[in-house]
Design brief:
GO terms for molecular function: RNA binding. By secondary structure, the protein is mainly α. It is built from 25 helices and 3 strands. A 3-stranded antiparallel β-sheet has the order 1-2-3. Helix 24 packs antiparallel against helix 25.
């Protein structure tokens, strides 16, 4: 059981010790690696002589895949078109298809165009080309075409099955995915970590998830990190915290996904979430932006204002993580729950380094509704009207603010640490014209 002692009793440095600078730089470098991969690719591309690119299909194919994966479709096609031997090998075709698939580019017409060229060049029945096409169509939303191509594959390998399985799961076709999983086993293909992780990601019934967990135990893959992480997420989504803790505590190692999963699972139990964060830092692991979103949500759930402000501060000061929209939204939500509307508004106008989005203005508008702040509510609503033209809820919420103002009513929580996200909730509705308060049951959407 996780200790739930209040972290406020400890000094900040003792609670969340500062990690070595070298570890921060290493984590930063890992993050930058993915971010700047395309820049490195372009620099390498410039250094390679055109003669070598025309001669070496392998190098060209890797560059094509990088460009397509990074969303630079025009550069990928330019390089592809310059390859004189592209029709002599399936690798360039596979690279451009796989690059699109990995990036998840939702351009059906591009996939179809490439598909037609593949068939014309005689690679239409090549196994790994078909695997890439199945993956591409599934990610672009055409699951029917992906399924048709899957059935055209003569000898299906593990990649074939996984591509189709992930496609079904992405579209939440649970029955089809489970039937495919059974066929896969009957065909003599042993599922790997990709297959099993994909199953746990989906919205599976709890009973089915337990059966698959049993399969994992029988295969002896219950210590593979990505599988256990998926199982932790699976039980966390279903609020089965005992299973989450049991799986987490028995893991041989933890990565950032493991820590984020267990912290997120305890978002409605902030003491436990903060305790896991303390363990995470002590273990030498470095948090990322996702970690702090979960922690700030946990603080908002039970009104831990001081902890929330401390976490937001050390996120940048200690870990060099720039706040994203989600972090600002959490802080506005936290201030709003305490009725600190002016402070929340100043936070948006003065602290944010970029224009606020619907997440932030929406949290502020709801706080204004809850505490009857017409002036700031109007400002938040005006921004939301520009950002979300089709969202009628913003208009309805502003109308309720006006209505409550006319009636002289405000809505405040009956207890300082009431969890506001439970539905239905009990609020005290009071009148500004008299001292009488009445506790009533309201829905969160009322």
């Amino acid at each position: 059981m996780v200790a739930t002692t209040s972290l406020r009793l400890k000094p900040l440095k003792q609670r969340w010790p500062l990690p070595p600078a070298s570890r921060i730089l290493y984590a930063r470098a890992q993050w930058e690696d993915g971010k700047s991969a395309i820049d490195h690719g372009i620099r390498v591309h410039r250094l390679i002589p055109d003669k070598l690119l025309r001669k070496n299909v392998g190098i060209s194919s890797k560059l094509i895949r990088l460009y397509a994966f990074s969303g630079h479709t025009q550069k990928a096609h330019e390089l592809f078109d310059k390859m004189p031997k592209r029709n002599a090998s399936a690798f360039p075709w596979n690279s451009i298809i796989s690059g699109y698939a990995e990036k998840g580019v939702g351009l059906i017409h591009v996939g179809e165009e490439v598909h037609r060229h593949v068939i014309r060049r005689g690679f239409g029945s090549t196994g790994f080309i078909l695997n890439a096409l199945v993956d591409k169509y599934a990610k672009c939303g055409d699951i029917v075409k992906a399924q048709k191509l899957f059935h055209q594959i003569g000898t299906k390998d593990l990649v074939s099955w996984n591509s189709m399985l992930i496609g079904y799961m992405r579209h939440e076709l649970i029955t089809k995915a489970l039937n495919l999983f059974r066929l896969m086993i009957c065909d003599g293909i042993e599922p790997d970590s990709v297959s099993l992780s994909a199953l746990f990601v989906a919205k599976l019934p709890l009973s089915i998830g337990k059966q698959i967990q049993g399969w994992v135990l029988r295969l002896g893959t219950n210590q593979e990190l990505c599988i256990v992480n998926s199982m932790v997420d699976f039980y966390a989504d279903r609020k089965k915290l005992m299973q989450v803790r049991c799986l987490f505590e028995h893991m041989h190692e933890w990565d950032i996904v493991s820590w984020n999963s267990v912290i997120s699972a305890h978002s409605k139990h902030p003491d436990e979430a903060l305790s896991y964060f303390e363990k995470m830092v002590k273990s030498g692991a470095l948090p990322d932006g996702v970690t702090f979103v979960s922690l700030l949500l946990a603080c908002a759930h039970l009104g831990k204002l001081e902890d929330g402000e401390s976490l937001f501060r050390i996120m940048k000061e200690r870990y060099d993580i720039s706040p994203r929209m989600e972090h600002y939204g959490c802080m506005v939500n936290l201030y709003g729950r305490f009725g600190l509307i002016d402070k929340a508004f100043d936070f948006v106008m003065k602290r944010m380094e970029f224009e606020a989005g619907p997440t932030v203005w929406g949290a502020l508008l709801y706080a204004c509704y809850r505490y009857g702040n017409v002036k700031i509510g109007e400002v938040a609503a005006q921004h939301l009207f520009e950002l979300e033209l089709d969202n009628e809820h913003n208009f309805e919420l502003l109308m309720k603010i006006y209505k409550n103002a006319e009636l002289g009513k405000i809505i405040i929580p009956p207890y300082p640490r009431q969890t506001f996200l439970d539905d239905p909730l009990m609020y005290c509705v009071g009148s500004a014209t008299d001292s009488e308060f009445h506790c009533v049951i309201l829905s969160a959407t009322d």
